Amino acid sequence: MSITPEERAARWRMVLGGGEADGTGHSLAGADAAMEAALAALYDQPGTGASSGKRSAGAASGKRSAGLGGSAPNVARWLGDIRNYFRTDVVRVIQKDALERLGLQRMLLEPEFLESVEADVGLVATIMSLSSVIPARTRETARRVVRKVVEELMRRLETPMRAAVSGALNRSARINRPRHSEIDWNRTIRVNLKHWQAEHGTIIPERLVGYGRRQRRKMRDIILCVDQSGSMAESIVYSSIFGAVMASLPAVSTRLVVFDTAVVDLTDELEDPVDVLFGVQLGGGTDINGAMAYCQSRIRAPQETILVLISDLFEGGVEEQLVARVANLLASGVQVVVLLALSDSGHPSYDAELAAKLAALGAPSFACTPDKFPDLMAAAIGRRDLAQWASENGLVATRPGAE
User: Fold this and answer.
1) Ranges assigned E (strand) in 79-163
2) What is the number of other CB atoms lying within 10 angstroms of the CB of residue 7?
3) How far apart are the C-alpha atoms of 126 and 228, rounded to whole Å?
């Protein structure tokens, strides 16, 4: 798409910030001037630095005087401006910069700010970190913002999660020596098409696939054990979503446990992920061994249990006991998976030494993005080699002997 010389000059003018040395000689008017004012309010403040190139020049010289001011209404108006001028993905970047550069976390305590902000997972994580100090007059607004994001995530993630887990459970339930009344004829025909006998016009069913007998109890027990240190906030958001979806599946028993130095079982809150998120207290120390001990005490059928530890593995408890406990869990038949993050970025900082120790025991450690998590659970239910599965899906797993 071509642009006019005038449009090009205007863009350079906004990039360079309009200081004395910007060299464009171009002045802005109308919508361009308003857009420039919105950017200047954030990026041309003394001491805030610059997002790119020369925008800091004006701020450093002190000759630009834009600002967001100290009140929530001013910030709310500014948020409205940037939403008018920029795409949603750009708005989120600008909001993040505002929170970091101008210390606007305090604005999250104001209803006016929350009503205007473009909500995303990052904002939910910030609200979670402030949940204990959010005043009563703002709490309901905060819950509405969190619920909006949760509902958007549920719409995106619920269907693939249900399909992946239900499909894996159905496959694991099928039997290959079915009674006549238990034969799944559609699947039996599909798996035996290679035995088509053209001269006889028939298929030889060398393998019979059955529906499987009705289960009297849930087929899998899944425990999500989630570190609630500050760096794991995004992982907690996604864990609550997936936990709620799995809890609604009749063939799965799902437990959600969060921990720092204490352990909180949020299983009873899984019906509403928003309640889960407001039950989390981010920060504090980390006792992974204590959390795993609690989860171990809740296991009733080790061979049918999948325990997913979501943590960066910076253990504040007794590491030797943690390693021994994981070894004991694996020996009993529990499938232990270590996710270093469940987040969109998928590039966590973590304790590589401890991850290697757990991998050597047979508990693969890797980061996972939300879109891959349903397939991960399906692979675990199907008892696949999860280190190999991670590698096949571009998720780098920590292997035995890793540095």
Assistant:
1) none
2) 11
3) 13
